[in-house]
Amino acid sequence: MRSLIRTHATEFSLLVVIVVISTVLSFATANFFSLGNAFDLLNISAVNIIFAVGLLVVLISGGIDISFAVAASVVQYCAATLLGWIGGGGWISGLLIAGSLGVLLGCVNAFLIHRFRIISIVATISTFNIYFGLLMFFTRGVSIYDLPDWLTDRVILFEHEMPDGTWIEITLPVLVMAVCVVATWLLITRTTIGRQLYAFGDNPEGARRFGINIGAMQFIAFGWLGLMAGIGGLIQAHYAQEVVPNALYGRELDVLAAVVLGGARLGGGKGSVLGCVLGVLMISITQNGLNLMGVSPFAFKMIVGAIILIAITVSNTRIERLLALVGEKGAGR
What is the DSSP string of 170-216? Predict the structure, then answer.
């Protein structure tokens, strides 16, 4: 047990923080600690988790990308337009189109970073503004409400009526999120590519000397994030039942904070899917609880930022010291 906690110190610390926050919120509001609210949180968090596992791969490789949310908005609009041209399509064609467009936009970032040796944050700040500027210029900020029926029809995978007459349900975004999470976990933990991504992020020069194809690592990392951004953008359109050009604008910082909170190192070479998911859930739980308490939305960023700071401080505390302290107390008795 001690070795398991040492190995997953960040995830363990985050789990403790989530339990503490949930306990406080359950006493502060009557509706937070309910099965219905838990299912709602899962459905609402699905798109952010899809984005987060994609961003995790980029951070592991030593890069950073803040353009993925805007790229997802571009994919939304382009996919909706293309699907209209081909007569509506279906989920298979929709996911293929969205995923392909997302990969293309991600590879644009990788090309700029690899070919011109541009720092990843500078390159993605540039593409962030280019993508968003082009999107707003060509769409003029006009939303799309006339979407294919298959995209707007809610797909309920599980539903159950509670004793109070309310319904709990798991919808399609949760299934897609689960597939993306498992696929990312397999990529970074069960493949040679995953090991190379960790090695490249931890020591780029050492990886280069070892024979790892640096360009390939960058295209795989940013391409994977692009794929997740494309899929997440389509799922967001399904969830909202509309395509709003600026709907995802600004979400990139929340996702980045959640992934770093989950243990991903900005310098590369470190990060886990479990920590990434827990980071997103912690922020979602906090915002949901504050909303149920009637806290002004303008206070969300301030309070969530403080909680992130505290959680990161707790996560950075050496778990061995805590275990040693507990052991000393136990021996003293």
Answer: EEHHHHHHHHHHHHHHHHHHSSHHHHHHHHHHH-HHHHHHTT--HHH
Q: Backbone dihedral region of 313: left (phi > 0), alpha (psi from -120 to 50 degrees) or beta?
A: alpha
CA distances from residue 73 to 21, 53, 179, 324 in whole angstroms, order as listed: 32, 18, 21, 49
CB 145 within 8 A of CB 15: no
Whether pLDDT at 320 is above 50 = no
Mean of all residue pLDDT scores within the chain: 89
> Does the global pTM surpass 0.85?
yes
Q: How far is C-alpha 112 from the geometric centre of its chain's CA atoms?
A: 23
DSSP H helical ranges for the chain: 2-7, 9-28, 35-60, 68-85, 91-116, 120-139, 149-152, 172-189, 192-202, 204-209, 214-240, 251-261, 273-292, 300-316, 319-332
Distance from C-alpha of 182 to C-alpha of 286, rounded to nearest angstrom: 25
159 DSSP β-pair partners = 169
Q: Diameter of the chain by CA atoms?
A: 75
Residue 56 φ/ψ, nearest 5 degrees: -55, -45
- Among residues 176, 277, 280, 284, the alpha carbon closest in space to that of 236 is found at 176
Of 256 and 308, the one with more pLDDT? 256
